[in-house]
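User: I'm writing a tutorial on reading structure tokens. Could you give me a worked example: one chain, its sequence, then its tokens, then a sentence or two explaining what the tokens reveal?
Assistant: Sure. Here is the example chain.
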Amino acid sequence: QESVTHASAGSYVGINVRYIDKDDIPKGTVCCAAEKNSGPPAKLADTFEAELIVVDEHKGRLQVGCTSVVQRFGAHVPCKLEQLKSKMDKQSGKEIESEPRFLVAGDRAIVVLRPLKPLCFEKNSEFPRLGRFVMYDAAEIVAIGIVKDVVHRPDVSV
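And here are its predicted structure tokens:
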């Protein structure tokens, strides 16, 4: 392993923090500066709105209430599908159905997901590296997505 003095956004690094065991820092943890003048700290998502594309190989349906594992870099967190806001045309991105009952392979949609464990997300438009993810169910890819909006937990930072 190589020791470095600097890492930038998107770098994969292992860290050691004095007085904290390395096993107490889970994979996928987002680190940020604690100083007030370095910008706002990373925040945990309460819910997030995402644009999903259900992969063609997915055999089932996605519907409100189902839980899938969302992977963002090294983090693997179960997320509950709370709302299907709209189904979109695959090519143009225009809404073709409001509040669909379910999604199937090949569908493109806007959904709301709720992480069931702490997870840091940001809007893809503002911070692309924390705004993309893959959804899994039973070790199979279900969908890929980008974060359109985030409702952060109040007063909880990473």
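What the tokens reveal: The mean pLDDT is 86. The beta strands are 43-54, 67-72, 75-88, 95-98, 108-115, 132-137, 140-157.
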